[in-house]
Amino acid sequence: MLPVRGRSLSPWGSLWGVRTTWTTVGDGEFFCPGCGGDRNYARRTGRRRLAVLGIPLLARGYEGPVVECASCDGRFGTETLDHPTTVRFSAMLRDAVHTVALAVLAAGGTSSRTVTSTAAATVRSAGFEDCTEDQLTCLIEALAQDTGRCTADDGTGADSPYSASLAIELHEALEPLAPHLAPAGRESILLQGARIALADGPYSAAERDVLSTVGAALQLCADDTARLLAAARTPS
Fold this sequence. Notes:
This protein has about 240 residues and is of the alpha+beta class. The longest helix has 23 residues, at about 85-110. Mean pLDDT is about 85; it is low at about 1-10 and about 150-160. The radius of gyration is 26 Å and the shape is elongated. A five-stranded antiparallel sheet has the order 1-2-3-4-5, with no helix packed on it. It is built from seven helices and five strands.
């Protein structure tokens, strides 16, 4: 692709000015702040030169790199690429709810059909439309075998807290998502996990530990997490 020349920055029009020659060094898809949606982009670097009568002469340094939208031609800092596309954001949100549901089930056990039913419905609402109770139960059993721990049969979670590997998965799923969620969105994920835990009665100690981990990974302070868990126990 040929470089794109920038406009003269001089008030003297075409006599002299500083021009920028842009070179494309990469491309992809991003969330464009100007368009407000997913668009293709070109990652570009520029070289500034002093031009006289349109002829580039002296180097004046470099520009960028910048991210240029293929639709609106807007140029943005490379930090724009840190924002997930809408497709990626939806997948992150779906995976976050799924991971929270698994963690709560691993802590509280899968013996209660009310709990597994609530968990499956929550995961389906998040985007896994084909999720079933049996699938979640099988995943919990596989996690137990993988970590050498068994989930509680009585739903108390006292004998088998959720595994350290699942705690790591919670942080990996929630921490990258949290900065892109409004406070209400972060609270919603925690409350969905709380409702699963409460489906068969009060929180067990293990369930509280899991939900506290969820709150921390979602950048909620301990006081807010405690307040939300208490509110979830109050019928609406």
